[in-house]
Design brief:
Chain lengths: 358, 151, 371, 159
């Protein structure tokens, strides 16, 4: 069976067989870099197209349907347009920070790709503190957004950036706490180990109600952390026109746009890994026949399926709900989500210590 | 209250008022200097209680300008039209934005388009036109070859 | 002139919302003084779409000037035209045939429904939900189709003429309207599911932008804005025109005066409009659709003031005639103008997001304000 | 205890209201039959405009290239924007009488607001509204049209 695992494995064998070790590693680095960047581009195109189609169908429209087969090339055409457009820098802007900000956001998103297990044994860097790494790196995005807002020398941008700062910093807490709940259950920070611990059932099923609560809080928190509606305070189209990227145009805007979608992908991928068993197939207890059929589906498809399911849910939120107000947003975090997740972690610890989970 | 009752009531309060007959609502004329006093009475007198100023406008009669205030009482349902003649060269009248809040915007509009100066208005600036606009467009003698297209 | 605006001396942030901004529904320009996220002062700058319609009308005849008023409040253009036709008819002293009156009321209510539907979608968009906008347009499209069939246009219909209406109803009119009413009734619950009941929506609109009854009267608010504060100001009830006096409908009144109350008033008004249409659609009397009028209309010297209830409130048309073919002076008392003047009062102390929500519930149409 | 009960009830209500909305959008996501948008340029052939739709003013001609316009300028007077300009000439008929007749019917589409007042004013039903709505051109001068066809003349019996 052709799987990503065998492809990557054979590439590695080929490299180490034909090149001295140091160069083999270098070539591997280059290949990984190309892989990440192309994955970025593909993800951006696919997710933007998906968003437009999802929103269209929810809004009783058809959506993009002209360019390419059923409109599939529409986002490619839009990207081309953005690339060809002139990237304006406002006169009063801090030029260095203004140009740096989209790359900071972008690189933050790229770094997050490293520990994500895309399929069985396919992981760029199986770091043993994977979860910690993710929570640490995901905070970098806020610096990029604050930088963009400040450097634009525009009050809308500044307001958007400040909102975004307050929002991301607060929602990181509950996102982190709900991740910790799973870390407590699985007893490891390494993502591959966390997946391995779900071999006999996903944590969302094994972890009783606390795991479910942690999952819901995680979804809410990452929606907020990625600045998606109903928590799109930083952009808030009807209030702040476009928030922190009001002044950006052309390629730099495209980078922000891309980073948003890649961030959603990563957040959902982490959610799928921690709660839904990552690339593990869906198994039901002792139904061996069913389990066998499920095993036949490649692990990368399982991973992508779960991730895209979560992405769809987040898109579903966006096209259904009105936006919260900034104070309500912070109230929701500090008055509801944070206390609930703290208690949840406590309960989870008790469950883990007493071994009540399955 | 019917128009005739309203007229009697008003005459008791302000004997100097003159009235016009024939229109749908009672029309009364007031001197510009007396207007602010009358406005307070109309608004606060419990029998009259004209609390709703629904239209403020100005008319250019070529010889003079005339301010027209349409008042209604939401309690009693009667309507009164108050008119006040203004000098065309130097139209001045006391602002009633302290009596009815809505007058602030309507008076700015009248200032903008007719050049009526409202004394003691909190913020008398042009409303629709730019601050450096010359002339008062709704006056009959206003000429603007650029912006006015004659058909 | 856009003055140099920046940071004021006491550390407040001054930002320009508009004239090009997604939530000002046109070219409204608000200069907002902010303290952090809190609104300290809102100052509307008007005139970006000022066309001096009043001056324009002074050179148009009594038949011609009506079409211009469609361009004021373009969302309820029928009702604007109706107000002007009423003012002219007052001067001409013509009796309007019963059939024309019923047609006028039917068209007014359909326009009100269309206007409120657009408001519903646009307001949801201001609050951040984009999907309702498209759902609202689905129903609005049906009304537009009905209008197109009978009046010949979708937005600026120019269907009301002095003495009645321009043409008779289209033969399919009754059938189409009944279909629409039935369809809309079935979809109305979706409006509630999608927005009214939504906890985020309620949190965003309740206790926001409160205006008291006294203030609403003093600021000259009319229409749903005033009725949400408990002011009984429905012209259709107070000064019934056409056949409104014979109809059974309620004036929707709320006490709270906040954004949610204004929302509920409009939702209630949509139901009342449907009931008015129900009462009339099967009882359109036979007869003339237009009274006989002269080819050239001349109003006797005098002053004529007519009031109608548009979707936004009380529209007054004040015509001063010197006996000629054209009005000597014409003044439109537009509802949006007075409602906008209360925005500063409502929005002080709230957040930027609330300001946008309040503007949404005021249902501003900028050409109506600027004229 | 009642506090917790109330708290749970609020959370339940909130969540159920959100789920209701999601159910509705989910319904439309899965039911593509409800889609109302039209594929406009493709459906040009099947596009059905009502006969009263006001697209532009046209002067109707019959097969013999005859129109009904007497050149009375009623439409020109009725037009609020000066959209219509009628140039008349004096024809001399067989009996030697001079008679006013239409020379050129100039119509400025760029000024027209489709208010229909000219159609109502026309005493001979010479002009009517056409259903064409695709008016965009690259040059504004193309919007000024002459409505009477070259060589056309007044229909018999129209006064």
């Amino acid at each position: 069976m052709l799987s990503i695992e065998s492809i990557t494995g054979s590439i590695q064998d080929f490299l180490f067989a034909n090149l001295p070790g140091f160069f083999a590693v270098l070539v591997q680095f280059a290949l990984v870099g190309i892989f990440v960047i192309s994955l970025f581009a593909v993800l951006g195109l696919v997710l933007v197209f998906m968003e437009r189609k999802v929103s269209a169908y929810m809004q009783i429209r058809v959506g993009p349907n002209r360019v390419g087969f059923k409109g599939t090339a529409q986002t490619l055409a839009d990207t081309l347009k953005l690339v060809l457009k002139e990237g304006l820098t406002p006169i009063g802007a801090d030029k260095f920070l203004f140009n740096l900000a989209p790359f900071v956001v972008m690189i933050g998103a790229m770094l997050l790709m490293a520990p994500i297990p895309f399929a069985r044994n396919v992981q760029i860097w199986d770091v043993n503190i994977g979860v910690l790494y993710i929570s640490a790196i995901s905070s970098i995005a806020v610096i990029g957004i604050l930088m963009a807002g400040w450097a634009s020398n525009n009050k809308y941008s500044l307001l958007g950036a400040m909102r975004s700062g307050a929002q991301i910093v607060s929602y990181e807490l509950s996102a982190g706490l709900s991740i910790i709940a799973i870390v407590i259950l699985s007893g490891s920070l390494q993502l591959s180990e966390i997946i391995a611990s779900q071999e006999n059932g996903w944590w969302i099923f094994k972890g009783h109600v606390p795991a479910l609560i942690a999952f819901v809080i995680f979804i809410i928190a990452v929606t907020a952390e990625t600045n998606r509606a109903p928590f799109d305070m930083a952009e808030a189209e009807s209030e702040l026109t476009a928030g922190f990227h009001t002044e950006y145009s052309g390629m730099r805007f495209a980078l922000f746009f891309l980073a948003e979608y890649v961030n959603i992908f990563i957040a959902c991928a982490i959610g799928a890994t921690l709660f839904l068993g990552g690339w593990l197939p869906f198994h039901i207890g002792s139904w061996t026949a069913f389990n066998h059929i499920m095993d036949y589906i490649p692990s990368s498809i399982w991973f992508m399926g779960k991730t895209f399911f979560l992405i769809f849910i987040i898109m579903w939120f966006r096209w259904t709900f009105p936006r919260l107000r900034i104070d309500q947003l912070l109230n929701l975090e500090w008055k509801y989500l944070l206390p609930i997740s703290l208690i949840n972690v406590l309960i989870m610890t008790i469950i883990a210590i007493l071994g009540w989970h399955f | 209250m019917t128009s005739s009752e309203l007229k009697e009531q008003l005459l008791q309060l302000h004997p100097s008022l003159s009235f016009e007959e024939g229109a749908e609502w009672l029309h009364t004329n007031v001197e510009a200097v007396d207007w602010i006093g009358l406005a307070g009475t109309l608004r606060n007198n419990p029998i009259l209680s004209f609390d709703f100023l629904f239209c403020v406008t100005c008319v250019d009669w070529k010889a003079h300008l005339s301010m027209v205030y349409h008042l209604r009482s939401t309690k009693h349902g009667h309507t009164l039209v108050v008119k006040s003649k203004l000098n065309r060269e130097n139209p001045e009248i006391e602002s009633v934005s302290g009596v009815w809040r809505t007058a602030e915007f309507h008076e700015r509009e009248a200032y903008d388009l007719f050049g009526v100066k409202f004394l003691n208005h909190p913020d008398l600036r042009r409303l629709f036109l730019t601050d450096d606009w010359v002339g008062w467009p709704l006056r009959k003698d206003y000429e603007d070859p650029v912006n006015m297209i004659k058909l | 002139m856009i003055e140099e605006v920046g940071t004021s001396t006491d550390g407040d942030l001054i930002i320009n919302i508009g004239p090009q901004h997604p939530s000002t529904h046109g070219v409204l320009h608000l200069v907002v003084t902010l303290n952090g996220e809190t609104v300290k002062k809102v100052e509307p700058h008007l005139g970006y779409i000022h066309r001096s319609i009043e001056k324009m009308c002074e050179s148009l005849s009594y038949r011609q000037f009506i079409y211009v008023t469609s361009r004021m409040d373009y969302l309820s253009s029928h009702i604007n035209n109706l107000g002007c036709a009423h003012a002219v008819e007052k001067g001409l002293q013509v009796e309007i045939p019963e059939r024309a009156q019923v047609i006028r009321v039917l068209m007014s209510e359909l326009t009100r429904l269309a206007s409120h539907q657009l408001w519903w979608g646009a307001m949801a968009m201001d609050i951040g939900a984009i999907t309702p906008f498209f759902h609202a347009f689905r129903e609005r499209e049906m009304i537009n189709d009905i209008m197109e069939e009978t009046c010949g246009a979708r937005l600026t219909m120019n269907y009301m003429v002095p003495g009645g209406v321009m043409y008779d109803l289209h033969p399919d009119f009754q059938k189409k309207v009944k279909e629409f009413v039935q369809f809309f009734r079935s979809k109305f619950d979706e409006y509630d599911e999608l927005l009214t009941g939504n906890v985020i929506f309620q949190a965003r609109t309740k206790n926001v932008g409160i205006i008291s009854k006294e203030d609403a009267i003093s600021y000259g608010c009319t229409g749903p804005v005033a009725r949400a504060a408990g002011v009984s100001c429905d012209v259709r009830k107070l000064f019934p025109y056409d056949v409104y006096g014979k109809l059974q409908f309620d004036e929707v009144l709320m006490e709270a005066g906040d954004s949610f109350a204004r929302y509920q008033v409009r939702m209630g008004e949509m139901r009342q409009s449907l009931s008015i249409i129900d009462q009339l659609i099967d009882n359109i009397p036979e007869g003339e659709f237009q009274a006989k009028t002269k080819a050239v209309l001349k109003l006797p010297k005098g002053e004529y003031y007519s009031i109608v209830e548009t979707a936004r409130g009380e529209l007054g048309v004040y015509i001063i005639s010197e006996g000629g073919m054209t009005p000597y002076r014409i003044k439109f008392r537009s509802p949006g103008f007075s409602n906008l003047s209360a925005l500063d009062h409502m929005a002080r102390g709230s957040k930027i997001g609330d300001l946008v929500a309040i503007m949404g519930t005021l249902d501003l149409v900028i050409p109506d304000i600027d004229r | 205890m009642s506090f917790i009960k109330e708290y749970i009830r609020t959370v339940y209500r909130a969540v159920s209201s959100l789920l209701k909305g999601m159910k509705l959008t989910g319904y439309y996501f899965t039911h593509h039959k409800e889609i109302i948008t039209q594929n406009y340029p493709e459906n040009r052939d099947t596009l059905n405009l009502p006969e009263r739709f006001r697209g532009e003013v046209v002067l109707t001609h019959n097969e013999d290239n005859e129109h009904r316009c007497t050149g009375c300028t009623a439409c020109e007077l009725a037009c609020p924007n000066g959209t219509i300009k009628i140039i008349t000439q004096f024809d001399v008929n067989e009996e030697g009488k001079k008679k006013k007749a239409l020379n050129t019917f100039i119509y400025h589409l760029e000024l027209c607001t489709m208010c229909n007042l000219c159609i109502v004013a026309c005493p001979t039903d010479a002009i009517k509204m056409a259903q064409n709505f695709e008016h965009s051109v690259y040059d504004r001068s193309k919007l000024t049209k002459t409505l009477n066809a070259p060589g056309s003349k007044l229909m018999e019996g129209v006064e």
